[in-house]
Structure to design on (596 residues):
């Protein structure tokens, strides 16, 4: 064998043993002719002492050693002198005195450092991902990911769930993004689709009587990239029969609370039990349906005061059916006019027309962009409603479009929360968002669209509104939210064909199209489909949050870059002519745009 122990295993109790280690040279140092090598494997570091005067072979090897050489070292475990003990290393009380060294492989000059953190361009890191993954931070991320997935499997196994794999090549179905298509060689002109999620299949497993299903599912979506998205991603896919909403929420809350404590014991869960907010409550308080609940600075609606206040910006926005809302950035009254102007420019980028403000200095002096337009009663009413105190900076957005008010203030709230140090990464603020609208009106298409997916069941008390007022129908849908991210989305599903057809009709999906796309699940609903529901937490996003990384690429072994390209392999790449011929395909390149 190449090694008798790992590089993170030896302790003071092993002193006197003759052992063999194998690993990479993490760093090496010459201390007056005696060399010290930190040998590294996935399990840790061990300091190796090499005296080249003991043999010609050792002298020759020491002259050639460089970082990231792969070595096998035989030697004796010795106790370090008291003054040389390193309390920051698990193996810090011992060192190995090398008797024999074998170079198993050499290493070219590195494109970036492995043994220290550097600000290396991400494209270089992704090109040499096999080197990037050797770094301590990346290895910790991959180990954390492993622990999370193992915890999920063990927990759900104890709860009676079955892990069942579903096909990667299936039929194209609408899930909100473009499908990745796989051409069939056997059936010219026909295509498989890679699943955006196993939605229909996990529902069919409930019809099949499996009752409790889960899968660490690979999913694929051809959509524009951002920090928390990848073309291929992983989710904990779950579906259960004979359950209501709170059965699912209670199970997931127990799983993620216990799992978070187990894999990151240094972090604190802010709320136990997790708060449940309706969709409308989340929008009104935080401006978004995936709020960061680690801090306050909640949105306050002052429209009732502002509608007659005399400030035309406020009055006109409300008259046009809009709203005026604000946030209290406590402690930022020292912001200069220039800093407030920068905030104003930022909210304009987010769609707002501007930013009104009130500053109250530590001495109580008030300044504002609109004080002169308000009478004393309206001014006092706004200050009271905003819970204004000395040292506060009150910021307001007015717009005829409520979504602009929500979005710009939600983004501003998070940005200021970051500046004020309120977004503590050692705090996990889980919450549930429930009672989403089932439909939203598409002005362009002149029809209703499903806000989640068309298999979501309407809430019992809103069933009658399907016929009379679809816009008021709430779905039996729920989102799991953590620290400003939607972590999971799920719902109780429709399990009757007649109700499913009614929803398809409402979203303008013709019966023949629905039959062609969804015949398997529609047919299954007529063969004793049980009531069922499910949820699908994103594994990558959860690991990203716990690892305190800025994007999910940092917690995926071999990710694509933000342009959906694999920098290491060069994928996507052109297919060979014979491959295209076998698949009955011809590549037609887009025409170059003509210069005007």
């Amino acid at each position: 064998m190449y090694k008798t122990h790992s590089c993170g295993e030896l302790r003071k109790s092993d002193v006197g043993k003759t052992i063999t280690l194998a690993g990479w040279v993490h760093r090496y140092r010459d201390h007056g002719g005696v060399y010290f090598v930190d040998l590294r494997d996935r399990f840790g570091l061990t300091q190796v002492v090499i005296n080249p005067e003991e043999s010609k072979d050792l002298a020759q090897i020491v002259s050639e050693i460089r970082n990231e050489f792969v070595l096998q070292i035989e030697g004796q475990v010795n106790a370090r002198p008291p003054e040389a003990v390193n309390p920051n290393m698990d193996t810090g009380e011992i060192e190995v005195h090398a008797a024999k060294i074998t170079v198993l492989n050499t290493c070219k000059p590195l494109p970036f450092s492995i043994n220290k953190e550097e600000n290396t361009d991400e494209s270089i890191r992704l090109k040499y991902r096999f080197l990037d993954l050797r770094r301590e931070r990346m290895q910790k991320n991959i180990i954390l990911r492993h622990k999370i997935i193992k915890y999920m499997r063990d927990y759900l196994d104890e709860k009676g769930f079955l892990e069942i794999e579903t096909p990667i090549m299936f039929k194209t179905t609408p899930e909100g993004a473009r499908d990745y298509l796989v051409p069939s060689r056997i059936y010219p002109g026909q295509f498989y689709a890679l699943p955006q999620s196993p939605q229909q299949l996990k529902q069919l497993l409930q019809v099949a009587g499996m009752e409790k299903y889960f899968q660490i599912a690979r999913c694929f979506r051809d959509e524009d990239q951002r920090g928390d998205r990848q073309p291929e991603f992983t989710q904990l896919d779950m579906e259960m029969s004979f359950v209501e909403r709170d059965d699912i929420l209670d199970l997931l809350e127990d799983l993620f609370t216990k799992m978070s404590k187990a894999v990151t014991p240094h972090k604190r869960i802010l709320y136990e039990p997790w708060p449940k907010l309706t969709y409308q409550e989340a929008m009104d308080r935080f401006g978004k349906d995936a709020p960061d609940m680690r801090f306050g600075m909640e949105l306050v609606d002052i429209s009732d005061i502002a509608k007659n206040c005399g400030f035309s910006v406020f009055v006109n926005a409300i008259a046009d059916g809009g709203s005026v809302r604000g946030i209290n950035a406590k402690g930022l009254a020292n912001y200069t006019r220039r800093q407030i102007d920068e905030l104003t420019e930022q909210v304009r980028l987010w769609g707002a027309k501007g930013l009104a403000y009130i500053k109250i200095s530590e001495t109580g002096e008030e300044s504002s962009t609109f004080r002169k337009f308000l009478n004393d009663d309206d001014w006092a009413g706004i200050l009271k409603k905003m819970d204004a105190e000395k040292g506060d900076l009150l910021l307001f957005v007015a717009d005829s479009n409520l979504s602009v008010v929500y979005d710009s203030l939600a983004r501003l709230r998070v940005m200021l929360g970051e500046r004020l140090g309120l977004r503590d990464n050692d705090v996990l603020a889980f919450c549930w968002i429930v009672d989403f609208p089932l439909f939203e009106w598409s002005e362009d298409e002149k029809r209703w669209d499903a806000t989640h997916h068309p298999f979501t069941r309407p809430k019992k008390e809103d069933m009658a509104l399907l016929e009379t007022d679809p816009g008021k129908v709430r779905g039996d849908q729920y989102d799991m939210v953590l620290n400003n991210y939607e972590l999971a989305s799920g719902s109780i599903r429709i399990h009757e064909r007649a109700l499913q057809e009614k929803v398809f009709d409402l979203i303008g999906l013709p019966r023949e199209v629905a039959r062609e796309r969804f015949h398997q699940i529609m047919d299954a609903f007529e063969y004793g489909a049980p009531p069922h529901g499910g949820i699908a937490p994103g594994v990558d996003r959860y690991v990203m949050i716990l690892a305190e990384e800025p994007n999910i690429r940092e917690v995926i072994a071999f990710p694509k870059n933000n342009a959906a390209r694999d920098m290491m392999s060069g994928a996507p790449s052109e297919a060979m002519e014979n491959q295209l011929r076998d698949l009955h395909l011809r590549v037609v390149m887009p025409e170059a745009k003509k210069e005007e």
